Amino acid sequence: MNDMVRQRQIVELLRDRPFASVRELQEHLGVSAATVRRDIDKIDEAGGARKVYGGVSALDGAAQGTAFARPYDENRDLAVEPKRLIAELAATMVADGDAVIVNGGSTCFHLGVMLADRNVRLFTNSMPLAGYLGEHGKCSLTLAGGELHREPRVIYSPSQPINFYASKFFLGAQGISADGLHESHPLMVRSIQELSRNADQIVVLADSRKFSIHARNAALPLSRVGMLITDDGLSDQHAKMLESAGITLRIASNGGGA
């Protein structure tokens, strides 16, 4: 288990309790006290929790917490049904002959799978989606250039120009607030900002959990977003926030999109 995985587990443990001792974390993680203390120092420095005598304490109020980005393989298995419904609704907004950009991430992967046999031109930076479409798809596929970053499973290099222009850019977000779309991984922020300049409309695919997650880096302001598709767990408060920003809101549910 590497440092980032351990630190993420500590932060997630503190979502259910106000305090964890060094001894408890040793037993939970199977590492030495010295390793636990180093992890606590890193989490404290990142603002994810507070170092206290004998252990680590949760921050006062969930809104002050700073989330760590989950690896793609972990995030893929969370909220699977809402993600599938969101992707289904998003797929209805793609017309035959469209050129679209589908960003990395698990909800966008579902969308890409649904577009696999469509008459569309699709650009992606997602290695899992590229692998799927290369094996099973019939759509025209263009891949981002650069290096593979294994944790988010994204291909990116700042030196590689993006020579693809689309009617829509579909992307997810680690967290959403009045300040915009947020990501913990700086690489995802840079990639999103660059891709957003190559599309006429930005469409965000985000299940309602994302409105309670507070990631460190702002990727795009809400003013750049044209449409957001989410599930029926969205609160009235967050719906009003999106509408005030001029965003078209679509709700995906088992009964169809609203």
Helix content: 25-40%
Shape: globular
- Share in β-strands: 15-25%
- What order do the SSEs take from the amino end to the carboxyl end, as H and E? HEHHEEHHEHEHEEEEEEHEEEHE
Mean pLDDT: 89
Uncertain residue ranges = 61-65
Strand line-up across the major sheet:
6-5-4-9-12-14-15
Strand tally: 15
* Structural class assignment: alpha/beta
Through-space gap between termini: 43 Å
Number of helices, counting only DSSP H or I runs of 4 residues or more: 9
Largest sheet: 7 strands, parallel
Radius of gyration: 19 Å
Oligomerization status of the protein chains: single chain
Keywords: DNA-binding, Transcription, Transcription regulation
Protein name: DeoR family ulaG and ulaABCDEF operon transcriptional repressor
Pfam families: DeoRC (PF00455), HTH_DeoR (PF08220)
Domain HTH deoR-type: 3-58
